[in-house]
From TrEMBL:
PROSITE patterns: ABC_TM1 (PS50928). The chain crosses the membrane at residues 9-29, 100-127, 148-168, 188-209, 254-275, 295-318. It comes from Crossiella cryophila. Residues 100-311 form the ABC transmembrane type-1 domain. It holds the Pfam family BPD_transp_1. It comes from the Bacteria. This is Peptide/nickel transport system permease protein. The keyword Ribonucleoprotein does not apply. GO terms for cellular component: plasma membrane. CDD domains: TM_PBP2. One of its GO terms (biological process) is transmembrane transport.
Length: 326
């Protein structure tokens, strides 16, 4: 219990530090976001209206940076992420609510699927080292070095287009209204096949290699030899003794991967024109959209912290040594 409380205190402090950095860093970016917003508007805007925009977005020169920071923290506590410059006058929370489910479902499912498939194949490759399974390793080594977006471009050229079996872009069929009906869900799943396969193939290879190497290392440990000497079955030794200890580094990697799910795979979303958070982040950077940048970074930061906390709890369950006091 003491370990859990210590970790919670650490993550709360980290969350406060992230919120503080999240406030100050966008304001160090050169340029004036209000001027960028005005340049996209048609027609002249009066000086009074321009000043009103500065006040609305919390960039009023009469207010000090510390006062702006306190106002920002107060808005966060009330659940207000501000108004987006890019999608003005839509609130940032509405923009994230529209794009976040696309990224979480696509990248979340593919990340977990690639972890499970890659870890399982890595256990097999490490436990059966020297067998035919090792023939897969050169392929996985090559695939792990290929970026997501490059595989995406290859997938589009081979399987999409006019004569292709899959759509080349978009999250659903044009003309459909997003909703929880079967027609829309089927269209969304159909459009996500190529991006999902691209992410799984590219990220699965890294899990295979890391798990295989850890299995080879763990298989030489004394407790595995003792388990064999007890006459335990091969599968029980492989899963309960070797794999359980070898998977610990992968759990940390999975926690980071899950945390960055909401950031999406930016280039994959651009290649497939997928309506996720990654593409929203790209647009926010180009438009100097402080509120949207801060909202996305805040969600990403909190996701990473929650994922790492879950990884610490998983360590408690997998490794008894973490449950003992020093």
């Amino acid at each position: 219990m003491r370990y859990v409380l210590q970790r919670l205190a650490f993550y709360l402090f980290t969350a406060w530090a992230a919120v503080t950095i999240n406030f100050f860093i966008p304001r160090l970016i050169p340029g004036d976001p209000v001027t960028s917003l005005i340049s996209r508007q048609q027609g002249a805007i009066s000086a009074e209206n321009i000043q009103s925009l500065y006040v609305l977005f919390g960039l009023d020169g009469d207010q000090g940076i510390f006062e702006q920071y306190l106002d920002y923290c107060g808005q966060l506590l009330s659940g207000d992420l501000g108004l987006s410059f890019t999608f003005f006058p839509s609130p940032v929370s509405d923009v994230l609510a529209q794009s976040l489910p696309w990224t979480v479902i696509l990248v979340g499912i593919t990340t977990i699927a690639s972890f499970l498939i890659g870890t399982g194949l890595g256990v097999l490759a490490g436990w059966r080292r020297g067998s035919w399974v090792d023939l897969v390793l050169p392929v996985t080594t090559f695939l792990s070095s290929v970026p997501y977006f490059w595989l995406g471009l290859i997938a589009i050229s081979l399987f999409a287009g006019i004569d292709g079996a899959f759509p080349a872009s978009g999250g659903f069929e044009a003309g459909l209204v997003p909703g929880w009906d079967l027609e829309f869900i089927g269209s969304a799943l159909y459009h996500s096949i190529l991006p999902a396969i691209t992410i799984i193939i590219s990220s699965m290879s890294g899990w295979i290699l890391s798990m295989r190497n850890m299995m080879v290392t763990v298989a030489a440990e004394d407790y595995v030899t003792v388990a064999h000497a007890k006459g335990l079955s091969e599968s029980r030794v492989a899963l309960s003794y070797a794999a359980r200890n070898a998977v610990l580094p992968n759990v940390s990697g999975l926690a980071l991967s899950l945390g960055f799910i909401v950031g999406g795979t930016l280039l994959v979303e651009i290649v497939f024109s997928y309506p996720g958070v990654g593409f929203q982040l790209f647009q926010a950077v180009g438009a100097k959209d402080y509120p949207l940048l801060q909202g996305i970074f805040l969600v990403i930061t909190l996701s990473v912290l929650v994922a790492n906390l879950l990884a610490d709890l998983a360590y408690l369950a997998l490794d008894p040594r973490t449950r003992k006091e020093g």
